[in-house]
Design goal:
single chain, mainly alpha, 2 domains, two-stranded antiparallel sheet, 7% strand, Gene transfer agent family protein, Phage_TAC_11
Length: 152
């Protein structure tokens, strides 16, 4: 049960291990359930967000010193609406778990399960047209772009 996200200078793993939950409860002064309830109500303290990220970094394998440096540099000075989602995802990963995405079956001989599409092949082409059409609300263009994809 962990969350992986780009934070500061690169991709980081965040995990609220049992030891880190105890530390989080100690530093925030409340239990994990009360802390989760605060986040669900958006009734949290700024320090709650910071501590969730800090303990998540440590639980994910970052040294305590590096975690504090990352927090001081990349969390504390940023707008709350940039920091809140990360803190919530870290907390929610431990609360609800993080299910693995199901593997896409790959069998080139079976039309029901076509091989996955290389997303880079679609960049600048049909995928961009489909996204653009959907974003503008042009339903006929979106349908046509989808049909082009199916035809191939």
């Amino acid at each position: 049960m962990h969350h992986t996200a780009y934070f500061g200078d690169g991709e980081k793993t965040f995990a609220l291990t049992t030891e880190m939950i105890h530390e989080l409860e100690r530093t925030t002064g409340i239990g994990i359930a009360a802390l989760y309830a605060r986040f669900m109500r958006q009734d949290f303290h700024f320090a709650d967000m910071i501590e969730i990220i800090r303990t998540g970094l440590i639980g994910g394998g970052t040294s305590p010193l590096e975690a504090q440096t990352l927090i001081d540099t990349y969390a504390k000075p940023r707008p709350i609406m940039e920091v809140f989602p990360l803190a919530f995802y870290i907390l929610d990963a431990r609360w609800n778990g993080t299910p693995e995405a199901p593997a896409i079956p790959v069998d080139d001989t079976d039309d029901d399960f076509p091989a996955p599409v290389d997303i880079e092949v679609w960049r600048g082409g049909k995928l961009d047209r489909l996204i653009s059409a959907a974003a503008t609300g042009d339903m006929s263009a979106a349908i046509n772009a989808s049909l082009e994809q199916v035809a191939e």
